[in-house]
Amino acid sequence: MEIKVPQHPSNLRLSEFELISRLFVPLATGEDALGLTDDGAIIPARPGYDLVVTTDALVSGIHFRSEDSAATVAARSLCSNLSDLAAMGAEAHCYSLAIALPVDWTLEWVTEFAGTLGDLQNQYSVFLLGGDTVSTPGPLTISITAMGYVPTGKALRRGGAIPGDRIWVSGSIGDAAMGIALLTDRLECPDGEMSSFLTSRFETPIPRLELGQSLRDLASAAIDVSDGLIADLTHITDTSSVGADVHLDQIPLSAAAEALLAKNSSLSTYILGGGDDYELLFTAPEDNEAVILALADRLQVRATAIGTVTDGNGVRVLDPTGRAIDIGMTGFQHFAGKY
Ligand code: ADP
Ligand code: MG
Questions:
Q1: Mean per-residue pLDDT for 265-294?
Q2: Which residues line ligand 1 (CB under 6 A)?
């Protein structure tokens, strides 16, 4: 279904209610949203399913730059939530949106923001359920809560990893961290095509929804890579009370990341510590290897085994000779500054 969001001149000021009816009502395409005409939405209970709920808040200046485009902010705020649903093995259903607009907000910005949400809704089969629109003396703040369904008891959890399981990751790792480093002039890439690939990995994350749903009966634990590969794997090992050995040279890289790393080996910190890739990191019994590879092939997503769950604790990263590397870094810590 195509969603058309009306365009307006940028200097026009709308009331809260006009803003909602012009920009957000067109996104409320699911019946449960009641066309945003009521005090709340109604999600009918779906027998045989659990409802998975997840929230991510993004604050200008912390989670995105004030100069980032509305399209980037929309994509990052919705897709980070959809990625959480993917990591739980859920099918995305809908999302709610709380937006706090700063004093200098423009209609042009919010129109582009809503337009991008509309495009993503079509892509990922979700709709806007409801939300709140307020103003703030502080920075632009966006909070999205996404909801999805998973057959009762089938959600993927962080706590199910068992010693001997293989550790897998989808796609490639480190691209988004390199992308934001390029955008903020902390990194250079002479190749324009590679550069725009890396920045797009930061600006438009791809939630691995189909993969997550298909892993329900294959994976023992799962998480999405948002804080950084090692930080997120540590969430799995801590919750599962296990350890993990990861082989540095088995971590899947894009051609662009590989080219930059070949010139500067210190960029491995982007691979191990950089976040925002929104790939799925999961563990699975060794016997499931062939099925996982066939699944990845069918979904046209890369899936790579990068290590093994152990009966130790914490994550060890091993070099090609099998020696543990000192990893003096963790993932992104809030308030430590993102970029
Ligand atoms: P109330 O004052 O009862 O909280 P509002 O006037 O804030 O209701 O909102 C009216 C309707 O518009 C509600 O259905 C609400 O969910 C929806 N709404 C408000 N802001 C947003 C938004 N940013 N995105 C989606 N729906 C919104
Ligand atoms: Mg309100």
A1: 96
A2: 20, 24, 36, 38-39, 97, 99, 128, 130-133
Q: pLDDT tens across 29-59, in order?
A: 999 999 999 999 999 999 999 999 999 999 9
Nearest-atom index, ligand 1, CA of 40: 14
The domains of the chain, with CATH numbers, are 16-151 (3.30.1330.10), 166-318 (3.90.650.10)
Q: Are 320 and 249 in contact (CB under 8 A)?
A: yes
Distance from residue 274's CA to the centre of ligand 2 (Å): 37
**Residues 6 or more apart in contact with residue 120 via CB below 8 angstroms:** 74, 75, 78, 79, 126
Taking CA atoms only, the protein residue closest to ligand 1 atom 8 is 39
CA distance 221 to 61: 33
Q: 23, exposed or middle or buried, with CB in 10 Å at 0-12, 13-18, 19+?
A: buried
How far, in Å, from the CA of 19 to the mean position of ligand 2?
12
The rounded Å distance from CA 114 to ligand 1 centre is: 15
- pTM, two decimals, is 0.92
The answer on pLDDT for 329 being more than 90 is: no
Tokens of 155: 């959600």
Sign of the dihedral through C-alpha 31, 75, 58, 141? negative
Provide the token pair at 192. Answer: 């324009």
Model confidence at 16, pLDDT cuts 50, 70, 90, reads: confident
